[in-house]
Write a structure and sequence with these properties.
single chain, Pnp Oxidase, Chain A, UbiD C-terminal domain-like, 2 domains, nine-stranded antiparallel β-sheet, 13 helices, 23 strands, binds flavin mononucleotide, binds manganese (II) ion
Length: about 475
């Protein structure tokens, strides 16, 4: 069963030993963040913090909801899709791609649990929630770290869901980190050019499919809510907001409504970021004014804690970005076998296995990757022949070290788009403006080498005839070796 709201996801996690209820009182000030960091480091279960210092008992935090799982990196992601926690990477990616290609339009409902409490205007106080101060050195308490930000394109009218971090400035204002390479950033750029505010709504604590698509890198004009319906296998139920012309999932734990005015900036950051550094520092960034808050009576605030791998960014975005790139390359007709983002590549690196029908084909693959939204910030592309299992990075490193010519096999693209603010390898001038670079490591045999010139792999399955292999395998224990 695919969990349809946050509470049923919590039950599923608990049933599979992927959740610990923390009954001990914890402090929102650094302690929650420290616990979450250890969870990621150890691959420990998610945490439901039931007692937070200074807050009433109904106010809870679900931390590390989809971090590295206990059975495998992706086991909580598998549970979110209703798959077995033992499901392998290939099975999860295929399920994601199949379901995203069967989207459902959302269903409008009159009301929902997210409307149990409604606070407007002066009643709004974001500190009502146990907003964590996550890492030492952060610029403030971060309310939006595992959530959905809804906005409508002011020119084209389509509705985007994205995940953009939100630092609380004061009781009714937060930061919003939205460079124009992201969909909401483009929408804001257009609104600002017209001198208009951009309305937005933030849903915290939704069903896992909705949050998965919020941090997915789907193409322009694709409405993420439809894809969430595809992942759920049924439409997402939406309710109207109170003060803005937008809709949010009815089952949300907490909803913030408001707008990002044109021209206004306040200092936002620093923050421990997804790549494992605080490289983005602080800067003058757009501000979200909250006009209304609605929530369940006993709301659960979802928190992820970016920093060193392996956390939600590498688990969830690792699956969806590789899945989206795979899907879009297949739709172009390219003979791709598999695409994989190794978690320590922090979504900056992808390895792709493919057949190579003609000369310089790896370049076609790499440029196709960079042409997608999901691949626009994948700085390292490794293209391998189809016999390589790219989900096994030992094989990929072997392919790089033996098949990629250190000069001819490397294709550099200077001045490529990058995420603004925080990419660690960029210098002080490039980093804030997102002046990046791409590289292709071509690990495919050149097409103009005659077949006889291709080195033969000296592996068990290539260099020994089948009858010898069968004999060795069937006699294995008779030789005196343990099973294996
Ligand atoms: C926990 C977390 C926090 C994120 N914070 C930001 C952020 O502050 N700004 C941003 O541009 N992207 C952020 N991202 C990445 C975006 O959510 C992701 O790129 C997504 O595709 C954006 O949606 P869009 O493609 O509709 O713009 C974050 C991702 C995660 C998992
Ligand atoms: Mn989008």
């Amino acid at each position: 069963m695919v969990p349809k709201d946050l509470r049923s996801f919590i039950e599923v996690l608990e049933q599979h030993g992927e959740l610990v209820r923390v009954r001990e009182e914890v402090d929102w000030n650094l302690e929650v963040g420290g616990i979450l960091r250890r969870i990621y480091d150890l691959g420990a279960p998610a945490a439901l913090f039931e007692k937070i210092k200074g807050y009433p008992s109904g106010m809870r935090i679900l931390g590390a909801p989809m971090g590295r799982g206990r059975r495998s990196v992706y086991s909580r992601h598998a549970l979110a899709l209703g798959l077995s926690p033992e499901a392998g990477y290939g099975e999860i990616v295929r399920a994601y791609v199949e379901r995203k290609n069967r989207p459902f339009k959302p269903k409008r409902v009159a009301t929902g649990p997210c409307k149990e409490v409604i606070l407007r205007g002066d009643e709004v106080d974001l500190f009502k929630f146990p907003v964590p101060f996550i890492h030492e050195g952060d610029g403030g308490r971060y309310l939006g770290t595992w959530h959905t930000v809804v906005s409508r394109d002011p020119v084209e009218g389509w509705v985007n869901w994205g995940m953009y971090r939100m630092m609380v400035h004061d009781r009714n204002n937060t930061g919003m980190l939205i460079p124009p390479i992201q969909h909401m950033g483009r929408m804001y750029q257009k609104a600002e050019a017209m001198g208009k505010p951009l309305e937005c709504a933030v849903a915290i604590g939704t069903d896992p499919a909705s949050v998965i698509v919020s941090c997915a890198m789907l193409p322009d004009r694709v409405e993420e809510v439809d894809i969430a319906g595809g992942l759920l296998g049924e439409p997402v139920e939406l309710v109207k907001c109170e003060t803005v012309d937008l809709e949010v999932p009815a089952s949300s734990e907490i909803v913030l409504e408001g707008y990002v005015p044109a021209g206004e900036r306040r200092s936002e950051g620093p923050f421990g970021e997804y790549m494992g550094y605080e490289a983005g520092r602080s800067g003058a960034r757009p501000v979200f004014h909250v006009t209304c808050v609605t929530h369940r009576k006993d709301p659960i605030l979802t928190v992820s804690n970016m920093g060193m791998p392996i956390h939600e960014s590498q688990v969830v975005m690792g699956i969806t970005m590789a899945g989206d790139i795979y899907d879009e390359l297949i739709k172009l007709g390219l003979p791709i076998k598999m695409a994989y983002m190794p978690p320590y590549g922090v979504t900056h690196m992808i390895a792709i296995s493919t057949d190579t029908p003609y000369m310089n084909f790896a370049k076609r693959v790499a440029h196709a990757v960079w042409g997608t939204k999901a691949g626009s910030m994948v700085y390292y592309v490794i293209v391998c022949d189809s016999d390589i299992d790219v989900t096994n990075f030992n094989e990929v490193i072997h392919a790089i070290s033996t098949k990629c010519h250190p000069v001819r096999g490397i294709h550099q693209v200077p001045h490529a788009p990058s995420y603004a603010y925080m990419v660690p390898f960029l210098d002080a001038k490039e980093r804030p403006i997102g002046d990046g670079a791409y590289i292709l490591l071509d690990c495919t045999w050149p097409k103009d080498w005659p077949k006889e010139a291709l080195p033969v792999k000296s592996s068990f399955d290539v260099l020994w005839p089948k009858e010898i292999r069968d004999k060795v395998l069937s006699n294995w224990q008779r030789y005196g070796f343990p099973e294996g």
